[in-house]
Amino acid sequence: MELKQYGLILKKRLVMILLLVTVSCLGIGLYSGYFLKPQYQASAKLIVNQYKDSGSLLPSIDVGAINSTIGLIKTYKEIIKTPRMMKKVVQQYPELGVTHSELVGRVSVSSVNETQVMSITVKGSSYQEAANMANAIAIVFQQSVPELMKVDNVSILDQANPLENRGAVSPNIKLNVTVAFLLALMLGVGIAFLLEYLDDTVKSEEDIDLLLQVPVLSAIPTFREKDSKERGDKPETALKAGRGNNATLDA
Hints:
The protein is α+β, with helices and mostly antiparallel strands. It is 56% helix and 11% strand. It has helices at residues 2-12, 14-34, 63-80, 83-92, 100-106, 127-149, 173-198, 205-212, 225-231, 235-244; strands spanning 40-48, 107-111, 117-124, 154-158. Helix 4 (83-92) crosses helix 6 (127-149).
């Protein structure tokens, strides 16, 4: 019975819920499509090797050293995003046309599935701009590692190609509209139940039974003048019919 009551509440407020969902989805869709600027993303990959040993032409693979190198990547990820490193990039590549603070906000560094490979990802207003920034950061970081860490164990594995034509990664209109739909639906349902909770008026026999805890013996139906016109009755006939049903008809 409670589920049935919930369904009746939602049915009564269905127009409000649909209107809220429609306006939200339409507004988010228009805003994402016409007001948000497209963002492109490019990545350059670095590989962190074991420490170079000039005395060994064919160094053996040490599993322990590899695990230590993977742990070192966490340090490298933090170094790349420091203002000091971004200032070097801006100084060596002034053609990028950005400040070091803007570059810090655009770059993200991640390790590929706990391997020795690091991925430097940069967002820009065009794919060419993002690719140039990612490549510049990779080159500057590779050159700075020997000075900072006193080791030379970083190599560029793959650079982004500025000539490639890739699509924008944001805004994702479908995702934005889907999120707006779910949020608007939950908000509409919540408002519907809130309005029903705040409405303390008595509308039916069930409300009286629930409120007073007494059975309903009889009910007086509402009789309007337009009801008699729809039935084709004369006013006198309607008045008599109303009296027979314990109802009154106002002139």
